[in-house]
Structures are given as structure tokens and as C-alpha cells.
Predict the 3D structure of the following.
Amino acid sequence: MDSSQRRILCICLILGLQTCVAIPQKIGLIGPGFKVSPMDLFEYNGIFLVSNNSVFGCGFRPQVVNTAFALDIIYMKSPTVIWTANAGSLIATSDHFAFDNDGNVYLETQNGLVWSTNTAGEGATAMELQDSGNLVLFGERGRILWQSFSHPTDTLLLGQDFLEGMQLKSGPNRNSLSQYLEIKSGNLVLYAGYETPQIYWSIADDSRKTRNNVSGMVHSASLESNSWNFYDQKRALLWQFIFSDNGGANPLWAAVLGSDGSISFYNLQMGDFVTAEAVVIPQDFCSIPEPCDPYYICSMGNQCRCPSSLNSYPNCNPELNSTCNSPTSSVGLSYVGENLDYFALGFSTPNLQSDLQACQKACLGNCSCLALFSDNISRSCFLFEQIGSLRTAEAGSAGYVSYVKVLSNGDGGPSPASEEIFAGMPVRFSYSDLHKATDNFSIKLGQGGFGSVYLGVFPDGTLLAVKQLEGIGQGMKEFRTEVGLIGSIHHVHLVQLKGFCAEGPHRLLVYEYMAKGSLDRLIFKDNEDGPMLDWDTRFNIAVGTAKGLAYLHEECEVKIIHCDIKPENVLLDDNYVAKLSDFGLAKLMDREQSLVCTQLRGTRGYLAPEWIFNHAISEKSDVYSYGMLLLEIVGGRKNSDPRQSSEKSYLPSYAFKMMEEEKLKDVLDLRLESDKNDKRVVTAIKVALWCIQEDMYLRPPMTRVVQMLEGHCPVPQPPTSNMLGSLSSEDKFGSEEI
């Protein structure tokens, strides 16, 4: 009996044993006749097949509230998704995965198949989830009919060969653009998935690779040890790209193409503590297609700015997809700037060799051209049909002159933005679009200020949160505030407004979807909706929230007071990055205006004293609310809890008492383990006690809060009595420039 026959006999014996056990979850193998749906697997967290070494699992992963599922392979210890069958076509609880007796493996909904191995009639005998993470469908004599390693999604694993003809595809970014990795013409390249693809990186042009004195064309690539190796057709090593100094004991590396278009490297064996290596592809943040939105200019320090000539357009975008159906007289060119660059220029061939005037004429004469880049020195003229983010030219380079096509107002100049559209406004959706995306507003995610929030699933699979404003008056005021102002604000710690609807009586806001939900679900002991957050994660959430609030107070063109800082308004993404949400209660202030009187808003328990007593308020009222939030993050409980002992029932009083007794670490959530030498616990509590001072002038500005939390400046001992109110804020926080 040869090895292949022994393997088939082994598979048959295992499958025979498994069919006698009425348990949905299988180890290693499944065979023809296997069928399972998400509703069968709730007690197994959706996993129906586990590799023999228990490292990888295959099953259904809920996208939202256990109602929409993807078929994934995951690394069990994280769990990190390494392969997905149906990212753009989610299935419902009652839909199923099947391995039929004809040898085909598929996902089926009420409307038909959404994914299949297309192996009907090929004699499939078993499907195995191997210890490498590869899902393999075998035929007679061990012949491989299909394998997930040959159909990667956005991740490559250690030892997985990436060959010509394969493709990695990222999830859609905030503008629904996906990026791709392929081997093209003997070179590994990354490109933006525009209608005409635009390359933005290649291994041949990356100076960080090491050569092996062998010339040739790239035929395959694979992760081996701590490097990405590139081979020719004869498996001769061409290049190595070393991405980590950690060649440690048996690391399990994964290369992931993120939605932003960058490739990051992770050691999955780090489990819940896995973080990306410092080395990333491409090396420069501004070299990905859309580090900012289209037409914005990316510059050093990851800054994004709109060219002054496009400031009058909503979100800096003339919103011209083509001018082929517009009269020639209605089209003009708008000057963007000089000393500019664009990610695709180094990988593109000039459309013509000409001076600037001829380049402009060529773009105006080509109805598909939306942007041009001209270099007077080389006389190179590039025309593009779609455009991502621009970037400033590197030091020592003259860069390019750029123009973009706009609709003219008849006298050769661009048309001003409509008075009905605010500058910086996001995408406008029709009500029917949102009605369809939310499945008639059927999946409610939560209740926010002035309205309910529903899950929206868009045609490309993108998940968004749709807020349906209820009522008029203040609801309309909130709508105008959020769309007109928040739509123009972009910060990593603020939930991004993606779009809106203003149609008849309907007023809706469309936000990015935050997969981990709100912070209150994860820190309070009574809530069991998710895992308990460790101290490092909590501290990072506290710092991120502080940075978002500092941005609203100090860095926006118009100062913004949030007015409702609380755990329910701190949302978390897949990586537990904190983002402030719900600006429906925000009160705008001119920078010249230090105090403002307004009606009572916010949530009791987080309201500063000046709110309650109807006194004038300022951004320091947000600082007070943040202090309460910070205490709750540290303590893992609400600031007022009558179930606690009288000493502990009001968290701020208890924290002040523990400070007097030099036992501040007693305030920390008892469920957490903290290093005795970790000074961040004491720092966080002292910062919180400064923030909740009754005298608003004693409270630090949020920029100083961030500095103190990050250890950039000392944290003085907070006053333990409000009788110390005569001490001005300048005494404690005005001596150093912020």
C-alpha cells in the first residue's frame, strides 16, 4: 500500500468515526454529506472545523449582532481572520455551508449560491483544515482539487506560496476603494483598484530588499522565517525583504493587505497581544493611494489639506466622474499647485512629451481626463481618469504642476459650491439607498441623541451605521451642525461622518461602522456583551479619547464642545481604537468666546457643576465629563453605584480618599492585573481628579491632559478640597507652554 492509499484509508477511517458522533464541530476533516448553518454552532462560537493542532478554525463569524455571517478561517488564539469566502455576500443564521455528495463545497442562501469550490463531479472525498491554516479539498488518491492557499483574500501565511495569477484584495477603504497585490510582468506590485488600475509600489523599486546576485523575473513569493522571499520560475532566490529582527522560535508570520493599501506583518503567536511590525509596505504613509480623501494633498507628518482652489467644493471634490456628456464650454481646469507628486507617477508612462500648455489642451480635449501632472524639465505630461490623494514632492525634487478638471460657470472659472451644500460635506445618499442598505431599518444598533442607529450593508459589503434623526427643531439643528461641521473634520479618534440624506422629511446621517461597539459594554462589570478589557487596552482608550477631545477643543477651525462625554459615546473599532461619537449635543464656539450659556444638555453623572447650576460653561465642562469617564475606565464601574459600600458608592469621593491615604491603586478594577511598577494607574487617577475639580479654572485643558497621560509632563498633586479654588489654573497648568 503506497502513501497516498494509506492517506485515503486514514481519511475514510476518521470520517467514519466522526459520522457516529452527533457533534457539529469536527477535528481535521469533513466529508461528503456534511451540512451546517450558523444557528447550529452558537455553542462553538461558529467554528465547525478545527485543525488537528487546534491552531486554526473554520466557521461562521458574525459581522453584526449574530445576524449576518462570513465563512472564515481564523487563528484560534486571537482570533485573527486569515481567509474569508464571502466578504461581499454575507449569509443569514438559517443559511448553510454544505459539502454535497457530488463533491461540491458551497455556501447557500435562500437566493442561491454565494460561494463555491466549483468541484462538482470531480470525485471529492474529504476536506481538511491543515495545521498550516490551509483548507484543502481532496479527490481520489489524495489529489488536491481546491485549496484556500490558492485563493487568498487579504492575508498570506508563513510558507504559503503566492504565485503568478493569484491576487490579494484589501477590504474597501472609507471611499469604497480596494487595493490589490499581484505578480505582473515578473514584478510583485500593489495597485489601486480604479477602473484603470494605478500601481503605487513594486518590490523591484523598494530599496529595502536585499539582492542574491541572481537576476530574473519574480514567479513566486513566500514568507519564510522573518523575511519575504522572492523566487524565479526555477525557484532560484532573487530577493529577500526582511521585515522583522525577530527570527524567534517558530514564529507564525502573516502579511496582511489593509484597507488603506499598506501591507503589515504580524506574528500571530503573540495572540491577543499581536501588533504589527514597524516595517510596512510602502514605507511612506503618503505613498498609498488615499492616505487622505481624493484631491487632498498629503504632506510630512501625515497632514492632509485641501488645495485652496478646491475649498469651495464639498469635501474638496469637484465630483466629476467624466465630462464626456458635458458641453465643452462648461468644462475648465483649476490650478491645484506646484511642487506636487502623485503615487502612480513613478509607475506610469507619460501620455505625451509636451509643455504645460499642450498638456492642458490634451486634458481638455480628452473627456475622460480628470487631472493632469506636468513636468517642465522632462516635458512629461500625465493624464489620469481617476485621482486619489496628491502629495508634496520630496525634498530636492521640483515635483509637478497639477490641474484638475471642473465645471465652469461660463466665464472660465469654476462654479461655486451650491448654497444648499456645506463646504466639506460628505456623500449625499438618497433615502431609497439607505432604506435598502438597512433592510428597511431592521437591525437596530442603538439609540443616540435625537435618533436611532441602524446597521447598513452596502453593495460592496461595506458596513456603515445609519442614524435616523427623529423629530424636527433641535433634530434639524443637530443635522446642520453635524453635516456642516463634522463632515469636514477628520481625526483618528473621531467617528467619521461618511454621508447624509436630506430628502423630504427624512434626515439621516451615515457613519463609519465601529465593530466593537461602545465602551460601556466592555468596562462595566454588569455588562457581559464582550471580553473584559485589560489595563493596556483601557489606558490606550483613555489616551485616544483625550486626543479626540483635545482636537475638538484646540485644533478645529471652530472650537467644538462635545457636551455629552460618557462611555456610551466612546466607540471602538476592530483594534479597540477609541473614537468619540455623537456630536448631536455639540455647542460651537468662536475662539474669541471663552464662555457660553446654553440650555441644559448632556447626561447626569457626567455633567459639570456649572451645567447643573445653569452657570456659563466652556470646554472645561467637557474636561469634567472626561475626568468622570477616566475614573470609570480605571475602576471598571459607574461613577455612582448604590450597591457598593457607603465609602465606595461615589467613585470620585472614594478616589480622593484613597489619594489622601496614598492607596490610589485600590481604585483600580479588582479584575485587572497590573504591574506594581506601572505608574500609569496612579497617573490616570490623579489626572482624573484634576479634571473633576469643581472650580472649572483648576481643570487642565485637554492638550495638557494628553501630555500628562503620556508622561510628557509631571502630574501635580490634585487639591483634595474645593476650598482650594483660589488657586488659579495658571498656577498649576499655565507655567509651561502647551
